[in-house]
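One example copied in:
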Amino acid sequence: MLMRPEDHLLRNQEYNREGYLFLVERNKIIGTTALTKYYCQYRKDISLLRMINFTQTSTKQLSPYDVFVRNCQIHLADEKLDKRFMFDIQAIEKGASSDKMIVFTFQGMTEEDLEGWVSVMGGQINVSKPQISSKTEMQNELDETGLDFIKKCIRIIERRGLHEQGLYRIVGMQSKVNSVVAQHFDSHKTNAQKLSTPVDEDMELKTVCSALKLYLRTLKEPVFTFKLHNRFIEAAMIDDKADRIRTLHSLLKELPKPNYELLHILMAHLNKVSKFHEKNLMTPVNLGVCFGPSLLRPEVETVSSIYDIKFRNAIVELIIIHYEKMFKSKLDHKDIEEMVHTNENGENAVNLGTSLSSLASISRRPPPTTSIITETTGDTRRQGLCNQDFGLSVTNKNVYTPTSEDITRKD
């Protein structure tokens, strides 16, 4: 059975903890960092941390790198290195002079993983966490008032914005966007009052688009639901395109009625937006990048879940391109054949049938006990994070790095 990175089952009882960690290293390019994946083992009695470089394509013996930990603490976020699940250790290389202290910054897989490593190394874990922004504190329901708000925004956008370049990609000012959503979903209002709250027809299009996206991002549960999230991701990993389409179509029908209705309306709108891509530059691919992370948000965000962003975006892209067929009650053989061979807008559709199903297990396998990593040919591998928000330099050409659409301009 494959092992999740956060499970850390001890293969060697002399170690108190072992599992995957990312070593964070600053690049020569100012403001960027790179992650190197290590399988780490820690002995508490002698404060020994053993690091084995996890290289996918190497066939040579990898020598472990040993250091003695002298101090450990949770990494406090700063403007240049604002990441989650991170901690610092002060350590001395094995065989080096005791006055040659080196600082290492690591990133764990989850918050629980972070606390486990810091705790076993004797660090403090009760560090005050950064304040949550007002944007993430806002939580909305998917109900008739939400559907009404989406329809109002879509009506304005389709009336005067289909030719607008960068539609949904260019963001509005945060204060204005928050104000629009807060005004519409004021908790002191009754549903009738919310339904009668207008969206300013003359508002800047970038504000209207950003307000629509903010509502979707701040739903208590995403449109594709937490319950079905993993099944959608697994469906996107199916190699055979026809089977992938059938599975995704079947999963859509399992969505709750309000979710299905909202998704149908939104996908029809985004399909219409994509028809004008020569003017607005918003192809199905670009729209998938804008909406995938919000519509398919995981219940718990981990480093592993960030890898799945490519699949989330591709699911939305496929539904945008084929929205009429994807929302039919039943797909016949002709429908599937047309979808398999369709490549709309003269653009290469996202190809998920190229060994990407193997990616799911990559971060779940510890390296061999002998530290020998065997090369697997023809296999596409993920290495490093693929979310541009993390400011990482990723060298693997097979990693897709979506443009961030969630960063909103400050006043």
